[in-house]
Amino acid sequence: MGKKHLENADMAKAISRVDGRAKVTGAAKYAAEVQLQDLTYAVLVGSTIAQGIITKIDTQKAEWAPGVIAVISHLNTPGVPEYKLQNQDVIQKQLRVFDDANIYYNGQPVAVVIADTLERAQYGASLVSVTYKKEQHVSNLEDNLSRAVVPKKAKADPRGFTSDFVRGKAGAYLDAEVQVVEEYIQPSEVHHPMELHSIIASWEGNDKLTLVDKTQGSQQTQASIAKSFQLKPENVKVVATYVGGAFGSALRVWPHEIVAILAAKKVQKPVKLVLSRGQMSYMVGYRPYTLQKVSLGASKDGKLVGISHESYGKTSMYEEFTENVLQMTRMMYDVPNIDTKYRIVPLNVSTPAPMRGPGEATGSFALECAMDELSYKLNMDPIALRLVNYAGQDPDKLLPWSSNYLKDCYRLGAEKIGWNNRKAEAGTVQEGEWKVGYGVATGTFGAFRSAATIKATYKADGTLLLQSAIADIGPGTGTAMTSIAAENLGIDPSLITFQLGNSSFPKAPMQGGSNSVATVGSAVVAACTNLKVELAKRAAKQKQEWNNAVPANIQLKGNELVNSDDTASKVKLVSLFTEGGLTELVIEGSAAQGDERNKYSFYSYSVHFIEAHVHELTGVVRIKNAVSVVDCGTIVSPKTARSQLMGGIVGGIGMALMEEAVIDDRTGRTINASFGDYHVPVNADIPQMEMLFVNEKDPYLNPMGSKGLGEVVIIGVAPAVANAVYNATGKRIRHLPITPDKLI
Amino acid sequence: MVENKSLEEEDNQGSSRRDFLKKTSVMTAIALTPAAAIKASDLKLDEKLADALEQVPLSIDINGQHHDLKVEPRLTLLDLLREKLRLTGTKKGCDQGQCGACTVHIDGVRTNSCLTLAVMHDGARITTIEGLATGNQLHPMQEAFIKHDGFQCGYCTPGQIMSAVACINEGHAGSEKEIREFMSGNICRCGAYANIVNAIQEVKAGGSRA
Asked: For this structure, is A711 an active site residue?
């Protein structure tokens, strides 16, 4: 049997991005780039205090400024109808835009200026003067742990990852021969997609709204806005054809989107609102600052006896944000005793948001660093430690894994990076002025699937149009869907067009939680199958043997419909259109999850290997090599999948070495709200890397055999870097990011 | 390109919506009584005044097309391209010269178009991503970015490509290390750096120049 797994070189030959040409020529139109007649520009004014009440807003100077059309605040807002309704969801309570004079965080939108040009709106915004009655604010997590609460969500879901949980005995690590008890801090991290969050809002009369918006879910934004403005969902159209990254920041409707809609209502013209890079730091979510305490206990042979894991994360004063920080701890290793505790601390900050690998990326940093620390205490290889504790089934749900190739991930990655070169004793390898170390860590993320529909339009000229509401924030959804359809039908990918990012297209989930390929891909398979059945039905009128054709054996080869079971029966495709004088066939296909989750536990896995060089004098960390191996089932689009894994590693390197949104607790303001001060990886920080996929089918999640990829690729990268830095230097950094000051 | 012309006309119409004289202190400066000012406004005299006071002429060549424009001095080159001329291929990623998404060539030199005012480039020759291909024939760097998958979301891509072309022309693509250094002014949050380096190396090896 030949090699099944994929390495760098195997993936170069796969099909290129179907929207590549649009993206390299500048033809791709992102949200702020769609042209409308009479377009006006809106610029937000943010609060300069973190807690208190607005006592006065002076807008006269702004209103008198050239080109300014309107200034809106809580004093003259057209209003959001939903705010007047009773029985609102108390857990997901959004910030009520311009609803009253209360301030909950520094930078909260308090007014918006609309003008005929961007420059005039910007100048107008600078003229709005706001007076406040300032009250005491709180923004520091450690200083306010006494305010920690159990999320309301926990009561609704006692088995969920935010509820206090005990398996076996709580605190069992205390009885173990070898113990690790440590605290880990993940600072706030900002998504900062390259495209600024942008929206163009346009009303048609009082009851129809069109939004060109940066969103990860055209239909989810449609539903949310329809609810807020009490409109019929079909009267709200959301277009998100191209989305310039998001990483979780566009999974919900944010205040600035509501503002743009209110502004468009007020001025009766289309309004464009683009956040500044600074506003991106606190207006569209972030990975929340989280303090974790992990306690591991193991026997001398490395078998885990017990894990206790506590997590304290920031949330806002008006909304409870939770994430699955503790999920990995409950299912990753075969441990008889586990207890977990999840708390959130309401502070004068804006609401966090899921950020790539939400929860698990934070949790794995603590758990996988603690595992590394344990390996040194045991004098045991970190991979061997993980293999000793490998879980043969899901110890949390007590279900078999749908598929789990973690052992292959460890083996393939160790070979590729040259794990044999790692010295068991930390701080012992020197190359010139640099200390050299290797680290490994594991990541996991649930593999999901929901419901979707595809509309397929197959034309007599052999071209196929597929449509879905799904967004593509960058992973290459259109490319993956085209690959699935091309393989299923046997036609050339160049004949297929996949249209997405429009609420008018058939049902699709949000692009989040790594479920796009599993969900929409299954609908593509269903639509292709339905198309083949329809073509066979038409063919049967010419040759009745087509009545017995099995869809799996039908292919559209060249200009003919071919049954691989009965090749003599082939018919010209074009002849199937003559009946009724049709020029195209319109077919739908739908697919949804079944009861598979009752029988199996679904997860994707990643194992990351890092070779880090740490400069002795300056404490600078250079990533010399990175090897990541992912088990996410069958790879349907190798070239784009490889880039997605590459992006996850880069994101993880940023998380490990540089990313930290800093709030000045004296003002509650984010003080590094720019790319000059908030550092993300640049080209010089990133080496050539090896991306590997086990590429073994998951038999139960979907017809393609795939599992989710987008999240799991970042989970485990940061601890792998931290573990490599420890191996190089003997210094254990438990507070990210690992900046030079912490190493010298 | 015909589209650009119609825009310039349309933009002038857009300016006529201003209630300029009614509101600004300029009216006191030119010593008009309020009633006279309102009358002047009704006669659209404010537009003429605004043109005279606020806008300066700009003669600029963009992607081989000549434009004679009148723009506010505070307009950045980036916003001229994106908001006035509808050349939205050039991207706004930070508006502070920190991300490189807005990179264009000004007389052949790569520049962050958000950090320079349009009026500073009277008589200049600007090339944007829309001007890189020759008809349907993509520039080798555009081809290489597709082949090596030098992007995911595509938002930083025009800036990366404009920078990459300049990087080779400047003689800063001599080694992988040098490319990484001289491409570090262009942030890619999707993390396609290694693919971008491969694309540049391939174009460099092919000896292609802009």
From this structure: yes
- Picking from B86, B186, B190, the nearest residue to A647 by CB comes out as B190
- Tell if the CB–CB gap between B93 and A20 is shorter than 8 Å: no
Residues within 8 A of B (CB atoms), A 181-220 only: 192-196
Is A450-592 in CATH node 3.30.365.10? Answer: yes
Chain B touched by A356 (CB under 8 Å): no
pLDDT-flagged residues of chain A (< 50): 1, 90-91
Task: Please tell me whether residue A535 adopts helix, strand or coil conformation.
Answer: helix
Are B109 and B148 found together in one domain?
Answer: no
Residues in chain B closer than 8 A to A646 (CB atoms): 191-192, 194-195
The class of domain A34-136+194-245+250-283 in CATH terms is alpha beta
Are A313 and A344 in contact, with CB atoms under 8 Å apart? yes
Closest chain B residue to the Cα of A9, Cα to Cα: B148
Model confidence pLDDT, tens digit, residues A154-189: 988 988 999 999 999 999 999 999 999 999 999 999
pTM: 0.94
| Domain boundaries defined on chain A | 1-11+399-447+600-744, 34-136+194-245+250-283, 156-190+289-392, 450-592
Q: Is B50 in contact with A66 (Cβ distance < 8 A)? A: yes
Q: How far is B123 from chain A (nearest CA, A)?
A: 23
Residues A421-475: tens digit of each pLDDT? 999 999 999 999 999 999 999 999 999 999 999 999 999 999 999 999 999 999 9
Domain that holds residue B87: 56-131
Domain boundaries A156-190+289-392, CATH class: alpha beta
Flag whether B43 is in a domain: yes
